[in-house]
Amino acid sequence: MKKTLLFSIFFLALQSGPACTATFGFDPVILKELLSDVSAWNSTRAMQPARIIDLDKANLEDANLDNADLSDASLIRGRLNGAKLNGANLRNANLLFAKLKRTNLRETILKRANLSSADLKNSYAKGADFSETNLSNADLRFANLEGAILHGASLQNARFFEANLTKADLRGANLTDAKLLRQAQLDGSRISNNTILPSGERATPLWASLNGARYSQEAEKAPVVMKAKPLPAPATYSGTTAKPEPETSIENAPETLLLQDVTAWNTLRKDNPEMEADLQEENLDDAGLQGADMKGIDMKSSTMNGAKLDKADFSGADLLNTSWKRASLKETVFRNANLKGANFERAFLKSADMSEANLTDAQLHGARLEGTSLNNANLSNASLYDADLTKADLRGANLTGARLIDTILNNALVSAETLTPSGEKATSGWAVLRGARFVDQR
Q1: Is 202 helix (H, G, I), strand (E, B) or coil?
Q2: Cα–Cα distances in Å, from 273 out to 133, 262, 294, 304, 363?
Q3: Class of domain 1-251
Q4: What is the pLDDT of residue 76?
Q5: Which residues contact 360 (CB under 8 A, 6 or more apart)?
Q6: How far is the C-alpha of 305 from the C-alpha of 351, rounded, in Å?
Q7: Which of 43, 193, 253, 356 is the most exposed place for a label (fewest CB within 10 A)?
Q8: 405: which residues sit within 8 A by CB, 6+ positions away?
Q9: 3-state DSSP call for residue 372?
Q10: What span, in angstroms and rounded, lies between the C-alpha atoms of 131 and 362?
Q11: Residue 283 forms beta bridges with which residues?
Q12: Cα separations (Å) of 268 from 47, 148, 165?
């Protein structure tokens, strides 16, 4: 009876529409309508042009939304990785911090949209209209922007490594402090005297010639400096009334703040315990993030090779298929983290806490794990070739199928609850043969 009652309450909550926005971060009724039938969605929007479209934090990954009318929609932190939005109308939409990796945006209208700090890595945006769009701090690495209209767009601090800007219109675009623009393909792109270069200076015919771009002279005007629409304050509101004015500005973008100031990042996380931060597929190689609070964070497929992360806390984090080669991780906490398939080759993990972590299929070749807690950790099929586990705590650890070739286990703690590579429980004899200490499980 209790289960039935709870299910009924949950179902009613789903049907209540905008009133439950504060719980879900988006309007589930609107999401269902959009995903059900794009043609019907567009017809409804045409009849109700003033309707508030709240899709903040909605999961639209791999959705087919070609030609959908999402103009003026709020998609803050929306997950649109791999979605099809070819020919869609996102004019004036708010896509602050949105995830658009591998998204199809061919001829999509994004005029005057807010894409500040959005992730557009490997997106396909050929012929898309980004005119007067805010793309400050956006990640455009490997994006295909061939023929895209970026006239008057704000691209400050945007990243362009290996981006294709062939024949793109960059007249009047503000590229102040843009990263790796010279590593982008600019053949035939259009720039003008109103284009602001990464140096903060106006583009010149010489710069255009050196970069294979076409130069044109326009009536000189001040560069467009666009301010990002800030994050919304959490609140419940109806679908017919406007959302409250947000308060947190782009200067406090969580992902950017992490790299700029770890202390400020930790304070932000402490003051906002429900704050979501998605760092999937991020490149944090060689970053200095000692003591960073990364509890519960989603960092699937990210790389931290050579990074300094001593005493950082990744408790409960999703670190599937991450790479930590040669990283410094002394006293770093990975308690109950998902490290399946992670690569810790030659990493320094002395006195780290990996208790109850999932290290299935992990690569720990040559890793230094002296004094590391692997209590109740799952190391099944992990490779520990040449790893040093001196004084490591392996009580209750699952080593089924693990490769212990040349692994150092001097004074490592094992117990009857430790499963050996054969899948059998460890014995005192097994421990003695490997220089380990057999103790009672506590």
Answers
A1: strand
A2: 31, 16, 11, 24, 32
A3: mainly beta
A4: 92
A5: 340, 341, 378, 379, 380, 381, 382
A6: 19
A7: 43
A8: 384, 385, 386
A9: coil
A10: 45
A11: 303
A12: 42, 36, 36
Between these two residues, 37 and 248, which has the higher pLDDT value? Answer: 37
Token pair belonging to 75: 């998609």
Q: What is the pLDDT of residue 442?
A: 55
Q: Are the beta carbons of 130 and 110 closer than 8 angstroms?
A: yes
Looking at the chain, how many residues does it have? Answer: 442
- Residue 25, pLDDT score: 60
Backbone phi, then psi, for 39, in 5-degree steps? -65, -45
Distance between CA 50 and CA 239 in Å, rounded?
A: 10
Task: List Cα–Cα distances, 399 to 262, 283, 434, in angstroms.
Answer: 35, 30, 14
pLDDT band with cut points at 50, 70 and 90 for residue 422: very high
- Count of Cβ atoms closer than 10 Å to residue 46 Cβ: 9
> 252-289: per-residue pLDDT in tens?
455 667 877 889 889 888 888 777 677 887 778 888 89
Q: Could you report the per-residue pLDDT of 306-345, keeping only the tens digit for each?
A: 999 999 999 999 999 999 999 999 999 999 999 999 999 9
Distance CA 155, CA 179 (A): 10
Tell me what pLDDT residue 21 has: 41
Q: Do 1-251 and 253-442 show the same overall fold?
A: yes
Q: Where are the domains of the chain?
A: 1-251, 253-442
The residue that leads in pLDDT, 183 or 60, is: 60
> Which pLDDT does position 88 carry in this prediction?
96
Q: Provide the CA 37 distance to its chain's centre, in angstroms.
A: 29
Amino acid, res. 35 = L
Instruction: Report the CATH fold assignment for 253-442.
Output: Pectate Lyase C-like (2.160.20)
Q: Judge residue 363's burial from the number of C-beta atoms within 10 Å of its C-beta, 0-12 exposed, 13-18 middle, 19 or more buried.
A: buried
The predicted pLDDT at position 256 comes to 65
Q: Is 405 exposed, middle or buried (0-12, 13-18, 19+ CB in 10 A)?
A: exposed
Helix (H) or strand (E) holding 12: helix 2-15
